[in-house]
Amino acid sequence: MPITQLPPAEHLGSLSNAERAAILDLLFEPSDTIHTLIEVLSEGSSYEKVIDGIRAELSRWADNAPTGDSRLLDDVLASHPRLGEQKVDSQQSRAEQAQLQTDIGTDGDTLSRLNSLYEETFPGLRYVVFVNGRSRAVIVEDIRARINRGDIQRERHEAINGICDIAADRAQKLGTVDIILWKNANRVSQLSESTPG
Questions:
Q1: pTM of the model
Q2: Are 29 and 93 in contact (CB under 8 A)?
């Protein structure tokens, strides 16, 4: 049973690393690399501030990517599923992409081909955008423009903004629950995931 709500932000600093990792997985997508940013959670008094802190840290990673190692950032960005993919593990991503699956304005093969072209143009990256109800045709236009622009550094920043905008939307939609109830739900979730089916 996955966690479906967040604890109040003022309690983030008192949570264990495992609990904070679960929150990052819920707001972003599961990634061992995003877990290296756990300390940012203890610095925020609101989810908006936490996400802004993560955006700032990821932006620092992007700014250092041309002269350093971009694998950490690329790992975080690639944790999001490809838009239009048929098999999406994340329940939240499935819901966020639902309109793209039913939109008849552009066929799914076009989006699949553009995802592949994007990943060839920007090795190590995955096209990420906050869909927010936009049609498949609008998404296709955006991915084409970003491919044609061909600027990997700008693309990293676009993707960072995309995952952080998604996280902010998720935080708003998930809402919060009393810390004791959240801790109990988190324990149940961890037990159900570790119990053989």
A1: 0.81
A2: yes
